[in-house]
Design a protein that fits this description.
This protein is an alpha/beta fold. The protein is built from 15 helices and 16 strands. It has helices at about 10-20, 60-70, 85-90, 95-100, 115-120, 170-185, 235-240, 245, 265-280, 280-300, 305-340, 375, 400-410, 425, 495-510, and strands at about 35-40, 70-75, 75, 125-130, 145, 155-160, 165, 195-200, 350-355, 380-385, 390, 395, 440, 455-460, 460-465, 475-480. It is globular.
């Protein structure tokens, strides 16, 4: 199926309603004006730590507002669970092998077709603010102001339309400030806008804002049931390097950069961890030291080992990660409040998502990359004025965002885009020919965290994965019976028909998306 219909009939009705709103500012009351698009994306936000999906760890009331007034996609996934490639899939509506950015070692070809370019050609004003992480400069934007690479949490340097500028403060606050400034002062208010607001948070190393350092101090987070996974029957899972126990660095990740220089860790990470601290200004350091110095002293005194150390690391990780999410939620509240105050809520599509999911101790891990559920799945909330409210259960993927935005704007969707427009779902329709399976392909090996190359297929119940290159292993999971993916069923008696069916789906999707890896 390919939803490439133009949707001007929908836009006319929605825009006309928006144009009659008494709260809408003068100058923005054009009845036929297409909807604005606000696309908010964080980096590594797990669906487990967004309370619209899961309330075990944290409450995110501001992000949840988007779901409350719009929709929650309950089966939202990525095509390649790593930052740069995921962003390239989003921009192009194509799988990694088609957009050319298969891993973070590549450079994104900015000359290729992207949805911001097509929207700009159609009269939209486009802006990109925050984390870009695609190596090459942004193209297709009237305005861009991006972090360098991963960016720093404290006092980050931005590239403002080509000019480097360090800004003092906390990255999540600064990124929001820049976005609100563009919305208020820099855009042409006679044009519809498409703003990509991309936060660095909650990417590693999960450094909280100073005002949030003591948040959750009274909370002990529950340990996942499979935290001590032994990876039986799953060779690739056993050979990764993303274990909280083994690979989470006490200086770089957990902030144990003591002033006495007595705590040492991985030499490649320890120096970076100490640099991050040294990049703070005196006031930031004072707040940081007041909180962390007693924790560092306790860490030295207790000399934890084994299970005690593993679970201490998990709690430190979860506390910092959730504090960073709290800052994201607070700042998204600022943006939503601004839209409401300016009368923009009823003529703006609002999207919240992450570039992929993340492990919160499941299988003993942090990070992403694998096709297992925690990193393959990603949160996706949308608020379309006049659109559906509630849950959308269909299988969707981040290659679907580009055609959705184009169809919403009344722009014909190019035939080479591989995703499907989500607009029918947002309108409450139930397309009978919607996809019944998703394709995934991860390429970055050998590299950080040592996750093997793999591809696979997932339908509404089963998942088939093939790890390849220097390994040749198949894995099959029944997600209904085994949602935590602990039991590899591939080759087990009684699963021959399921395996055959999933293998057929895999081949069909590889042909559909023209990925020749295993045809």
């Amino acid at each position: 199926m390919n939803h490439q219909r133009e949707s001007l009939y929908l836009l006319t009705g929605i825009a006309a309603l928006a144009g009659t709103s008494c709260s809408q500012p003068a100058g923005e009351q054009t009845a036929q004006k297409p909807l604005n698009i606000l696309y908010i994306m964080t980096d590594d936000h797990s669906f487990q730590t967004l309370s619209a999906y899961d309330g075990r760890y944290i409450q995110t009331p501001n992000i949840d507002r988007i779901a409350r007034d719009g929709v929650r996609f309950t089966n939202s996934f990525v095509a390649n669970s790593i930052s740069g490639p995921s962003r390239a899939c989003m921009l192009t509506g194509k799988h990694s092998h088609k957009n050319g950015f298969i891993d973070n070692e590549h450079t994104f070809d900015g000359s290729q077709q992207t949805f911001p370019k097509l929207l700009r050609q159609a009269g939209y004003q486009t802006a990109m603010i925050g984390k870009w992480h695609l190596t090459s400069d942004p193209t297709g934007f009237d305005y861009w102001n991006i972090l360098i690479g991963q960016g720093d949490y404290y006092n980050p340097t931005f590239i403002d339309n080509g000019e480097k500028r360090q800004i003092e403060g906390y990255a999540t606050n600064i990124t929001t400030d820049l976005a609100l400034d563009w919305l208020s002062n820099k855009r042409d208010k006679d044009k519809p806008f498409c703003l990509l607001l991309h936060h660095k948070a909650p990417h590693r190393t999960w450094m909280p804002d100073t005002c949030d350092l003591r948040l959750y101090d009274d909370v002990t987070f529950p340990l996942p049931d499979n935290f001590y996974d032994d990876y039986a029957g799953r060779t690739a899972a056993a050979e990764q390097e993303m274990s909280i126990i083994e690979d989470m660095d006490v200086v770089y990740d957990l902030k144990m950069a003591d002033k006495e220089n007595e705590i040492h860790s991985n030499p490649n990470l320890e120096g970076a961890g100490r640099y991050i601290y040294n990049n703070m200004n005196p006031a930031q350091k004072a707040a940081w030291d007041a909180y962390y110095d007693p924790i560092i002293a306790d860490f030295k005194a207790k000399k934890r080992t084994g299970k005690e150390l593993a679970e201490w690391k998990y709690q430190r990780y979860m506390h910092d990660y959730c504090r960073v999410i709290h800052s994201v939620d607070r700042n998204i509240g600022r943006v939503l409040d601004y839209l409401e105050q300016q009368g923009l809520l009823e003529n703006t599509l609002i999207v919240y998502t992450s570039d992929q999911g993340f492990y919160m101790g499941e299988h003993g891990w942090f990070d992403k990359r694998f096709m297992y559920e925690e990193s393959f799945r990603t949160p996706l909330l949308m608020r379309l004025p006049g659109g559906k409210r509630g849950d959308i259960p269909q299988l969707v993927q981040n290659i679907d965002y580009a055609p959705t935005f184009l169809e919403l704007a009344g722009v014909a969707v190019p035939s080479d885009i591989q995703g499907e427009s989500l607009l029918p779902l947002l309108k409450g329709e139930e397309p009978k020919d919607w996809r019944d399976a998703l394709y995934y392909h991860y390429y970055e090996y050998p590299a950080e965290h040592a996750v093997k190359k793999h591809y696979g297929v997932r339908d509404d119940r089963y998942k088939l994965i093939h790890f390849y290159d220097d390994i040749d292993q198949w894995e099959l999971y029944d997600l209904q019976a085994d949602p935590t993916e602990m039991h590899n069923l591939y080759g087990q008696p009684g699963y021959e028909e399921v395996t055959r069916r999933m293998m057929t789906k895999l081949k069909d999707l590889q042909r559909q998306y023209d990925d020749p890896i295993d045809q």
